[in-house]
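Progress note, sequence design subtask.
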């Protein structure tokens, strides 16, 4: 259902959504043609040296687990398909569009990229899991946070409050600001032309009922959210050496849904630690 302008404004509470970058508009325009030119798509992406370099670094990362190295953008388009490359590029330009150069957000973006890469890696060990969408979703899932920081000067206090309480961040955000980062992230993803699957996953990525199926989401959306629960858990506990009290509640449900045994979970944890080291 399309929201009215007033409905969007009510959801955003004055948060400004950054415009879709020109690179994404041009790539999307080419892909919407009856007979899109894949060479042209590759050329458009390759013109942005920073994005091209970041994309190749991502694709050649051990966490992305491609069978062979990618040497250039044209080869990436051939191997992954233009739509998958477009998804990845969309995630990579997000950081610059949301003020990624700010030193205060450096840790935030590093964590986002790490979780996105772990998402992708988890999908390589699951049958028919959406690796490329999982990576893009991982980058976008919390993109509402820097926008809320820009909109609400007191937002850092909200984060501190959430860190000290056993209550979902989105609930505290709603109470303090009348909106939350999942809603804002959903609006960014929608305005940037990401698939409805990714948009809906961003909107509900804190909803624990997605694991059990009580929150009835399409299978692909549900898969993205559940994979991300595991990725965030691995990032927090295995890499950042932090506790994760929520895992005690959701861990068995996450592993059951993904079809992972306890031994496979332990192997996956060891792999992620080894690769990230």
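Output:
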């Amino acid at each position: 259902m399309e929201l009215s302008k007033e409905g969007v404004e009510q959801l955003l509470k004055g948060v400004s959504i950054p415009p879709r970058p020109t690179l994404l508009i041009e790539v999307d325009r080419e892909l919407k043609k009856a007979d899109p030119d894949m060479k042209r798509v590759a050329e458009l992406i390759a013109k942005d040296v920073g994005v091209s370099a970041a994309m190749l670094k991502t694709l050649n990362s051990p966490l992305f687990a491609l069978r062979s190295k990618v040497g250039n953008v044209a080869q990436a388009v051939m191997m992954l398909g233009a739509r998958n490359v477009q998804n990845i590029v969309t995630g990579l330009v997000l950081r610059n569009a949301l003020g990624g150069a700010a030193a205060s957000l450096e840790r935030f973006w590093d964590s986002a990229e790490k979780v996105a890469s772990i998402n992708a890696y988890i999908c390589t060990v699951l049958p028919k899991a959406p690796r490329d969408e999982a990576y893009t979703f991982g980058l976008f899932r919390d993109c509402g946070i820097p926008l809320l920081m820009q909109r609400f000067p007191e937002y850092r206090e909200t984060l501190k409050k959430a860190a000290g309480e056993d209550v979902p961040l989105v609930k505290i955000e709603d109470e303090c600001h009348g909106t939350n980062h999942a809603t804002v992230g959903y609006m960014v993803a929608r305005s940037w032309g990401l698939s409805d699957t990714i948009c809906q996953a961003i909107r509900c990525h804190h909803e624990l009922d997605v694991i059990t199926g009580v929150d009835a989401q399409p299978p692909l959306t549900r898969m993205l959210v559940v994979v991300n629960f595991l990725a965030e858990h691995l990032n927090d506990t295995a890499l950042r050496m932090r506790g994760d009290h929520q895992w005690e509640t959701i861990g068995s449900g996450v592993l059951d849904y993904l079809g992972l045994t306890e031994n496979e979970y332990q192997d996956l944890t060891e792999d992620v630690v080894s690769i990230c080291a």
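The chain has a mean pLDDT of 90. Work on this subtask will continue into the next period as scheduled.
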